[in-house]
Amino acid sequence: MAGCATPAKPAAGTGTAKPGDPLVGLGEIPQGGGKLVDVPGGGRLLVVRTRSGEVRAFDPRCPHTGSIVSAPAKGIVDCPTHGSTFDAETGDLRKGPATRGLTSVPVRAAGDRVVLG
Questions:
Q1: Which of helix, strand or coil describes residue 4?
Q2: Handedness of CA 28, 33, 38, 43 (dihedral sign)
Q3: Closest CA to 23 of 42, 54, 45, 53
Q4: Among 16, 21, 29, 61, which is least packed, fewest CB within 10 Å?
């Protein structure tokens, strides 16, 4: 019956991290780009730096089926499962089949680190 089981959703979100917990070095996130970051307690976030240098984060699960999206390329975040695309700076939906954008997670820069907001 193992072939009939529903696959487990990949781990994502804030895990057990609390506000103020460090997530990643600021220098590891390229300006105008982003990175998938493992978070304590089994979480995972997509952390991005806008072209103007602002730090943002999103739950990397595609709202369509929960697949983990790819890191941004050329300002776009892609879902490899069904092709939804999202704006890398805002998380807004660009193209479906997803019907909404990525879920924002509050973060901030604190010195040379990105911390949970």
A1: helix
A2: positive
A3: 45
A4: 16
Q: Identify whether the C-beta of residue 60 lies closer than 8 Å to the C-beta of residue 69.
A: yes
Tell me the whole-structure pTM to 2 decimals: 0.88
pLDDT digits (tens, 9 = 90+) for 43-97: 999 999 999 999 999 999 999 999 999 999 999 999 999 999 999 999 999 999 9
Please name the amino acid found at residue 102.
Answer: L
Q: Strands 76-78 and 85-87, how do they pair?
A: antiparallel
Residue 43 contacts residue 12 (beta carbons within 8 Å): yes
Residues 79 and 85 sit within 8 Å (Cβ to Cβ) = yes
Q: Which two tokens stand for residue 50?
A: 């806008």
CA–CA distance from 99 to each of 44, 47, 85, 87, 116 (Å)? Answer: 22, 22, 11, 14, 27
